[in-house]
Amino acid sequence: MGINFSSFFSGLGRFFEYPVKRKPICFYRQEDFTATGEPVRRLSDQPKAAMTDYDKLVDLFYKRLAEQRQYNQEMKELDRRWSTQKVVQRFPGWNDVTIANLHSLFLLFDNQANGMLGCDDFGAVLESLGDESSMELRKEKFTAADTDNDGWITYDEFLSLVYNFNDQKEGSLTGLALLCNEIAENIQFVSNLTVGEQLEYGLF
Predict the structure, then answer these.
(1) Burial of 154 (0-12, 13-18, 19+ CB in 10 A)
(2) Claim to verify: residue 174 and residue 195 sit in the same structural domain
(3) How many Å is the Cα radius of gyration of the chain?
(4) pLDDT higher than threshold 80 for residue 11
(5) CA distance 186 to 91
(6) Which residues pair with 169 in a beta bridge?
(7) Which domain holds residue 104?
(8) 78 and 110: one domain?
């Protein structure tokens, strides 16, 4: 009886492959992959069959699809750069790095994932930046920036609030806006260091 069970289970092993491999989710042709998701090995010494009209049509489709994806990616990157440039123009004294850092902070403290910050979230952002203003002043500034009085500020309102948190002198940044620039410069400085240089500075 034991022999029959062992032969049965050994026979089952041929039907299963561990670890289980799944077909990759991709946009390549299905016939280019095996049932376990591995690329089909094609022998180069085999004579290539003449392409039918259908094969030519399929190849043309995938070629145009790849070109369209590349174009869409380039346009998306161009839009991102253009939108960043427009934001920088609205806030003289800030650069791309400062805007990117503030955008990351906004997303990090967007606890409701609704694209807006509450007063407590905004206070947490200021704490992370090292701002030492009072809670009363923060609430006052937040309320003034909340134009529709719904208790939330959007990303644009957030940038304006941070930039104008302290009165700016003409031609130079002060207060929180200046602090954001300094933090962004420090982040850029650290990101440009090698691992050895970071160890020398004691960043690990």
Answers:
(1) middle
(2) yes
(3) 29
(4) no
(5) 20
(6) 172
(7) 93-200
(8) no
